[in-house]
Write a structure and sequence with these properties.
mainly alpha, Serine Threonine Protein Phosphatase 5, Tetratricopeptide repeat, elongated, TAP46-like
């Protein structure tokens, strides 16, 4: 193996481990770096294939210890494609955000193929995959095209799924602690392996493959769920486009108001159809997805609409004040004013001769008390 390929691969892994430090995945900077990593990895993979380092009939014990790390090339490729948002490196825009859904489905399918290729290649060697991992691969009807249910819903019960997650977590934690030495190696410390023999180096790289196998199965589940969501979204968009193409123009576009449309309607309060002229359109009442955008009332009479359009917009009185008073009096809601007799009124105000005589007599009795005129009877 050429030293240039080894150093180039070590540099690639170092950059791969730092890719998530670049910020947003849909930014031009992130995608530009990701694109260059993809090109670099594909070139390394091409060199390794031309060198024919691995044989199907060759056991892992006979493989050069430093070559084992190249069995992870498809694993790295799967991870890069799972977050890649472009079709080719020429589409990178360094200052703009990238469309996250345009090529996402096709890139996820490439990531799925690469992850499966990685796991199948490991299955060809003994003592790398666990028994449960090998059984899961064997359960796929199509090894390179497992269904959503085969990847996500293959557990017999929730308890089995939880138990496998716990086992994988423990194994992943154990392997990660053992592989800290690889971080030094990938950070340009190529002398770190000089103190180990070949069997120790072999064991380190095999543990790395075991760790990657756990991540690969998790990645496949994530890819399957994301592809399912994108598939449902594509079906919905197709249904919407078919509905729009099958609808007549009158169903899609409201009529314009003008001299040829005197019985139009308006969806705005206190706005008549005369105010909508030229290219202006009525605001939509219902969206293309069937969602009501604003309240409206369905009516069957154009005459009612005309009255509302050309009316004052208010409820006006339908009778005069005099008519209203007569209506109130007729229904007993008001008391009618009593009309007095003028002749009786005069008698009540003018004093008669008899009353004057009585008043004069009362006044005299007040001035002459009883017994005041009997002077002779009191002389003593």
């Amino acid at each position: 193996m050429s030293d240039s390929v080894t150093s180039r691969f070590r540099s690639f892994v170092s950059d791969f481990n730092k890719i998530h430090e670049l910020g947003r995945k849909d930014s031009g900077k992130f995608q530009s770096k990701l694109s260059s990593l993809l090109v670099n990895l594909q070139q390394i993979q091409s060199f390794v294939q031309r060198l024919d380092l691995f044989s199907e009939n060759e056991p892992l014990d006979e493989v050069n210890a430093f070559y084992i790390q190249y069995l992870a090339l498809d694993y790295y490729l799967a991870n890069l494609y799972s977050i890649y948002l472009l079709k080719s490196s020429s589409e990178v825009a360094t200052s703009d955000l990238i469309n996250p859904t345009k090529y996402k489905s096709s890139n996820l399918k490439l990531a799925k193929q690469s992850a499966l290729q990685f796991l199948v290649s490991l299955q060809g060697y003994k003592n790398i995959l666990t028994k449960a991992q090998s059984s899961k691969l064997d359960s796929f009807k199509e090894i390179f095209n497992p269904t959503y249910d085969e990847l996500v819903s293959s557990y017999s019960s929730p308890q089995d799924k939880r138990a496998e997650k716990i086992e994988n977590y423990k194994l992943e934690k154990q392997l990660t602690s053992k592989l800290n030495i690889l971080n030094e190696y990938y950070n340009d410390d190529d002398q770190v392996f000089e103190k180990f023999d070949e069997e120790t180096i072999r064991a380190i790289y095999i543990d790395q493959l075991r760790l990657f196998s756990i991540s690969a199965f998790s990645l496949l589940e994530s890819i399957a769920m994301e592809l399912e969501v994108l598939s449902k979204q594509a079906e919905f968009e197709k249904m919407r486009e078919d509905r729009e193409s099958n609808s007549s123009p009158t169903d899609l576009k409201p009529e314009k108001y003008g001299p040829d449309n005197d019985y139009g309607y308006t969806t705005k309060i206190e706005q008549s159809h005369r105010s909508l002229q030229g290219s202006q359109k009525i605001p939509s009442l219902i969206s293309k997805q069937g969602k009501i955008l604003q309240p409206f009332t369905i009516t069957s009479g154009r005459q009612d609409i005309q009255k509302k359009v050309f009316g004052t917009g208010q409820v006006l009185p339908s009778m005069s004040v005099e008519e209203y008073l007569d209506y109130e009096l007729a229904n007993g809601k008001m008391a009618k004013e009593e009309v007095k007799d003028p002749s009786k009124d005069e008698d009540a105000t003018d004093d008669s001769d008899e009353e004057l005589e009585k008043r004069q007599w009362d006044d005299w009795k007040d001035d002459n008390p009883k017994g005041s005129g009997n002077t002779g009877g009191n002389i003593g």
